[in-house]
Structures are given as C-alpha cells and as structure tokens.
C-alpha cells in the first residue's frame, strides 16, 4: 500500500453514538471521523499523502476551482464482508474513470495505486463505520479540486485530492420511483463533459430535478441534446428497460452518457445469467408506446448510490407510461438486483474477480 501518514482525531465519535448513527444513516448526512488527503503541484507531483481528522478545508478565495470549476469526483461503496473485513466492488474501475475525468478537465491524473491506497488508509482507521444492516454500506467520495491561487483561464498547476466516507442506507425507498422526462433541459451535448464525473454536470441538472419535483417525481430523465428524441440518462444514474421477452435494453455510450460502473457490471452480469442485454438507441416516443402496448414491462435506474431502483412510471407533458402495476419491481429487475447485491457483499460467487478485500 502507498505510504500514508496518520493523524488520528483527538475527539472521535463514541462507540455508542456511532452505533446510534448507524441504525438509520441518511444518505450523505453522516460522516466518519477521518479523511484522506493528497496534494499535487507540477514541481513535486503527488505528495504529502495522509489521513487526518475530517475538518474544513482552508481554501484561498482566489483558488481556481471557485472560478473555473476544475473539479471531479467519484462514488463507490465499502461493504462488511462475511469475515468482517471491508469489501470493495471494482475500485480499479473507479480509479480509471477518475483519471479519465481528470484528462477531460485538464487536471493532473491520480495514479491507481494512490487512489486505492487512500481508500485502504482511510478504512484502516474508520472501518468500524461500515454498517451491516440490510441495504447499508459505507459510501466513499473521492474528489479533486484545483487549488492554485490564480485568476486566469488555464489548467491549474496545483490540486488537492480528498477522500470522505459516510455510512448510508438506501438512496431511494423500497417502492418504485416516478420519473419526469424533461423536454426543456439537456444534461450534456456531444463533445461536452457528459462522460466526465464533474460537479458542473450535476449542477446543470438541478433545475430539471426541481422541475421533476414539481411534477411529483423523484428523478428526471434527460433526452439527447441534438434531436430531443432519444433517451440519454437520468440526473445521477443510468437507465434500463425490460422487454416482454426478458431482454434488457439500455442506451449505448455516446460520449454524453456517464460510463456507469454499475451499468457495465449489469451488462456483464446479466449475460452471465443468460439474460439478453442489449445496448440500443431508444426513442422516448417508442418507450411510451411500448409501455402502453405491453412490449416494455419494466424499467429501472442503476448507479452506485441507487444500485438498482425500479421505475414505476415515466411522466412527460403529453403522457404517462406505466411499467407493470407501477408500484412493484418486476421479476427481471429483482433478479438482477439480487445477483448484483449478493456479489457486492461477498454472499455469492465472483466469476469476474470484481471484489476487492481490504486488509486492515
């Protein structure tokens, strides 16, 4: 493991308080005692890797991230394995995507060994924060910002990498999610930053998310920015549909859709289970028509935070598409969710070598 120095917090949260917080952790609201930090500049490269008490970051008001938005992040989870050790799911894929996002935003690339080393170092101190309840995990949030003190439109020469961790429960509730199809806003355009996991993409989606809330929906689905005809992705996750014959269909990667690791895992896992998994352009008109005819019977969102969340209805200004009874997940959705979650938690065979066990 990469050498990290450790500065333990002098005021750790008590075991009793931690156990109380782990009973029902709200997503993104409760954080562990520590964070991992690594610095970069053009002269030294990556240096000063350490785990410190979680605390506010001192940042100059002229730091370039505040003015030109050079910022990227990732999301992955640690689970408590059957032997009690932390289990990660495909963290190398997150490291590769983090590097790809950095390239797109002209930022310094963090090597995989540092990405994985930061996770292992943080878990060495905070592994007791991993909850073991149904649907619970320790969500890991690595992010990187440009922190050169300079006003000018150019790539920064200094960066700060930080890793936070927070215990979480389910992102959505147990039922089906209603989703709004926005015909007003676009998430990403060809040649843009759609494939990069950067804050600007999510900030740009918030107004559409507000529109969805006003329509009584929990999430928003975006169409392509050119024709406003083809399904792209949702505000923070990919989307898949199930046809009457059991085939699972998802839009192909086109440069505007995030290369979801859960999406990729489901495509491979579904094929391993004998399910036909297809990447195909889907027009929103066809999806609505096929939902009405019964050709499409299920729909679900997929992503690290959401895992697999069934979609009950899609709403647009002119129509509503319902999948199944609109309230309960369908059999293919349930089968894929069970296969994925048991694999992630070490409760089933791992034919792909995706699990990554952390030695404490």
From TrEMBL:
Keywords: Amino-acid biosynthesis, Aminotransferase, Branched-chain amino acid biosynthesis, Pyridoxal phosphate, Transferase. GO terms for molecular function: branched-chain-amino-acid transaminase activity. It is an enzyme of class 2 (transferase). Its EC number is 2.6.1.42. The keyword Repeat does not apply. Belongs to the class-IV pyridoxal-phosphate-dependent aminotransferase family. Acts on leucine, isoleucine and valine. This is Probable branched-chain-amino-acid aminotransferase. It comes from Aristophania vespae.
